[in-house]
Fold:
Amino acid sequence: MADDSMTKVPQTPDFDFYPVTETIRSAKTDGHVLTLQWSDGLTSRYHAIWLRMNACDPETFNPDTREITRSPLDLPAQVSITQVSVRSDGAIGLRFLPEDHDARFDPGWLRLHDYSNGGRRDDAAVEKVLWTTTECAEPPTFDGADIMKDDAMFTAFLTAVASHGLARLRGAPADPDFAERFASRIGVIRDSNFGRIWNVRVEPGAGSNAYTALELAPHVDLATREYQPGLQILHCVENTTQGGRAMMIDGFRVAEDLRLEAPEAFRLLTTVPWHMSNRAADSDYRWNSPAIVLDQAGQIAEIRSIYFLRGPLNVPFDLVEDLYAADRLLHAKLLDPRYRMLFGYLPGDLMLFDNRRILHGREAFDAAEGRRWLRGCYLEREELESALRMAARRARARAAAGT
Ligand SMILES: [Fe+2]
Structure:
């Protein structure tokens, strides 16, 4: 059930909260641009067309759904501001021409969306901390006993996943349903042909090396899919074996080091697609992607490295030998102990990690020695990001309420 304070929002084009930390000292316009001078000395500028497009009056906006009801073509191509007023409640009142349309703007909302001074920072934009085992020998670890009811610790745990790519709960319940309960606290679980929640344990007639006692080379899961799961949970229900240590590698750290040390190999690995194909008798998932995916700014966005699910390479003839040579450099780095975080699972341990950044694997173990049972599932990165934004929104709601 929604917190009552969350429903008492000012009129803004969303359901967020905008505590007013600075008041407006002056507001003026030349018709084309609104200029606000704030009490802390900052000057903010907004185009008339931007303000008109973001007006949240009932003629432009559905106040119940907070969705825009006018298409860009419903509004005039040329918009100007003819009147400006700072109202007693601190809001800015504007009249737009040629419609003679009045709208009111929340000052806190205007301040936070001031695109003339760098724009709004995304609440989910946590700075990434790339690591080797020198800086990060163990996963950032949180107390699993209270995580389901401690909001501050839950947010800190998710923030660690966003920054380091992984975090561990220790001392969480070891019951088989905990992975699902905890995942559902974050967001929607992503189903796949391996099941919504799956077991990692030795199983007769295993359809994957994951379900044996064999070593698993570092990899990411479901790289054969168009949209590779963003997050993975592994929760230890039982472990009485001595071996089988988990291995986790910061693929972004490896890729950034490769970018510096071997720029031509990095270029090939970020531009030439591998063909990846699953090995199932009853499904046929395939995808083509470079092993390292860059975003439009050239930043590393995801790792798609899983050599045991590669199909035949299908690239221009002249690239084959150079691409295999570049791939050897990447895999040599994945063997380097300084990138390999190794740790054992205790019953009740839960790992949440970014499946498009962190490569995971395990050492072999002796199945005759004991049982090793993990339960796992996938979510998308956007579930974590939504949860972080909601935590920030709740903090703003408390600030707006003066608590
Ligand atoms: Fe895996």
User: Anything to note?
Assistant: The radius of gyration is 26 Å. Residues 193 and 283 are 8 Å apart (CA to CA).
